[in-house]
C-alpha cells in the first residue's frame, strides 16, 4: 500500500469552495495511484482515512469556531464526487461521514448539535454508522438514566477505521427508534471483519456486534425528557444520503471514462479488418462514436445532479422549522431521479468502456473492472425500480413519497 501523506505537506487550510475542491483533487490523485492494488488486498482503510484527516476533508462541514472548514453541502457533494473519481470506496466513506456528522442536525436538539459538532470537528473524528434499517435486531433497554444497546447490524460502513459510530435501535416493548453517537473504540463494539463483497471493498462495511453499549438519555438524539421532538426536517435522513449516493456514482463513472480514454489513447490498437483502416485507435469512427455517446450522457447526468445538489443544499442549510411536507416530498422525488439517473449512467459506462478499450484491457493488471464492480455493488443498496415508481407517481398524480427508512 502506497497511500500516504508523507510526500505531501498540507500547509494552508482551504477557505473557498474552489480551494476545497482542488484539495480533494490532490487527495483523489494520490488514491488513484494504487486504487486497484488496494482493492485487491481489501484491508481496513486506516491509511486512507488518515489521508482524509490530514488533508482536512473530514472537517469540511464542521463549524469554523471548532477548526472546521465551515463549507456548505454543495461543496461537500463535489468533494465526494472528486474523491470517488480516484477511489469509489473512499468516496463512499467520506460521503457517509458527512451525512452522519450532519445527522445530529437532522434529528438532534440544539444542545446536542453544538456538542457533537465540537466533538468531531475539534478532534478530526470520522463517523461510521450501524444503522441498516432492514436489521431490526438491535434492541435498547431503558434503565432509567441510560439506554443500553444490544444486537447485530450488517453493513456498518467505515467499521474499524472510524472514531464515532451512530447507533440506531428500538426500545424494547415499544416502536420507538433512538439514534445515539458513541465512541467506536470500546469493548462493546465488535467488528467481525467479514466484508468480502464484489465492490466497494475498502469501505469495511461488514457486520458489527453491539454488546451492552450504554448511552445516557441526554445522548438520545432529538429526545427531551424521553420524548422525541418531531420536525419534518427529521425525515431527511434518507434523501440526504441518497444525493450523496448520486454524487459518488457519477464520480465513479467519471473515473471509469477518464481511465478508459487514457487507455485507448495510449494502448488500444486500431482494428485492421474494417475496410477503413486507421493508424491510430483514436481515429476509429466507432470509438469516437462510443466515447461521444458516453461523454454526452455523463455530462447531462452531472448537470442534473448538480442542480439537485443545489436544491438539497438550500433545504439542508435552511432553518429546520421551515421545511414543509410538500417541500420535503418535492425534494425527495428530485433526489430519487438524480440517484437513478446516476446509477444508470455509471453502470452503462462501467460496462461499455470494455468495448472501447479492447480485449487486452480485461487484464487484471489494468483493473478497469474496479469501476463497474464498485458501482454495481452499491447501486443494489435499494431497488432502483422503486425510485422510478416514486418519480412516476409524482409525474402522473402529484403524489409525494411517504417518509420511510428508504424514501
UniProtKB/TrEMBL annotation:
Residues 31-112 form the Acyl-CoA dehydrogenase/oxidase N-terminal domain. It comes from the Bacteria. InterPro entries: Acyl-CoA_DH_C, Acyl-CoA_Oxase/DH_mid-dom_sf, AcylCo_DH-like_C, AcylCoA_DH/ox_N, AcylCoA_DH/ox_N_sf, AcylCoA_DH/oxidase_NM_dom_sf. Residues 243-381 form the Acyl-CoA dehydrogenase C-terminal domain. One of its GO terms (molecular function) is flavin adenine dinucleotide binding. The keyword Ion transport does not apply. Transmembrane segments: none annotated. Keywords: Flavoprotein, Monooxygenase, Oxidoreductase. One of its GO terms (biological process) is L-leucine catabolic process. It holds the Pfam family Acyl-CoA_dh_2. This is Monooxygenase. It comes from Rhodococcus oxybenzonivorans.
Amino acid at each position: 500500500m502506497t497511500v500516504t501523506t508523507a510526500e505531501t505537506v498540507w500547509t494552508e487550510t482551504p477557505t473557498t469552495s474552489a480551494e476545497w475542491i482542488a484539495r480533494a483533487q490532490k487527495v483523489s490523485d494520490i488514491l488513484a495511484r494504487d486504487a486497484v492494488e488496494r482493492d485487491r488486498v481489501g484491508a481496513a482503510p486506516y491509511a486512507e482515512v488518515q489521508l482524509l484527516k490530514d488533508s482536512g476533508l473530514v472537517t469540511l462541514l464542521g463549524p469554523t469556531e471548532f477548526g472546521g472548514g465551515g463549507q456548505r453541502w454543495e461543496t461537500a457533494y463535489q468533494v465526494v464526487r472528486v474523491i470517488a473519481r480516484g477511489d469509489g470506496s473512499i468516496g463512499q466513506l467520506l460521503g457517509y461521514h458527512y451525512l452522519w456528522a450532519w445527522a445530529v442536525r437532522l434529528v438532534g436538539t440544539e444542545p446536542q448539535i453544538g456538542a457533537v459538532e465540537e466533538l468531531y470537528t475539534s478532534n478530526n473524528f470520522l463517523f461510521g454508522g450501524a444503522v441498516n434499517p432492514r436489521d431490526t435486531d438491535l434492541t435498547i433497554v431503558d434503565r432509567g438514566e441510560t439506554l443500553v444497546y444490544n444486537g447485530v447490524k450488517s453493513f456498518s460502513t467505515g467499521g474499524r477505521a472510524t472514531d464515532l459510530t451512530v447507533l440506531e435501535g428500538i426500545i424494547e416493548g415499544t416502536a420507538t427508534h433512538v439514534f445515539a453517537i458513541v465512541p467506536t473504540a470500546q469493548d462493546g463494539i465488535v467488528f467481525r471483519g467479514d466484508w468480502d463483497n464484489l465492490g466497494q471493498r475498502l469501505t469495511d462495511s461488514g457486520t458489527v456486534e453491539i454488546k451492552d453499549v450504554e448511552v445516557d438519555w441526554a445522548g438520545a438524539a432529538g429526545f427531551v425528557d424521553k420524548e422525541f421532538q418531531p420536525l419534518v426536517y427529521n425525515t431527511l435522513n434518507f434523501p440526504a444520503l441518497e444525493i450523496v449516493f448520486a454524487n459518488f456514482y457519477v464520480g465513479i463513472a467519471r473515473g471509469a471514462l477518464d481511465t478508459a480514454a487514457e487507455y485507448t489513447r495510449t494502448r488500444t490498437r486500431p482494428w485492421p479488418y474494417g475496410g477503413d483502416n486507421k493508424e491510430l485507435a483514436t481515429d476509429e469512427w466507432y470509438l469516437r462514436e462510443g466515447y461521444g455517446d458516453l461523454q454526452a450522457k455523463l455530462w447531462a447526468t452531472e448537470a442534473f445532479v448538480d442542480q439537485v445538489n443545489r436544491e438539497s443544499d438550500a433545504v439542508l442549510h435552511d432553518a429546520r422549522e421551515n421545511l414543509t411536507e410538500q417541500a420535503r416530498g418535492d425534494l425527495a422525488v428530485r433526489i430519487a431521479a438524480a440517484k437513478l439517473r446516476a446509477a444508470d449512467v455509471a453502470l452503462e459506462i462501467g460496462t461499455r468502456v470494455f468495448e472501447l478499450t479492447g480485449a487486452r484491457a480485461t487484464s487484471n493488471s489494468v483493473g478497469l473492472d474496479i469501476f463497474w464492480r464498485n458501482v454495481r455493488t452499491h447501486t443494489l443498496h435499494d431497488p432502483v425500480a422503486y425510485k422510478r415508481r416514486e418519480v412516476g407517481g409524482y409525474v402522473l398524480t402529484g403524489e409525494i413519497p411517504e417518509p420511510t427508512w428508504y424514501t
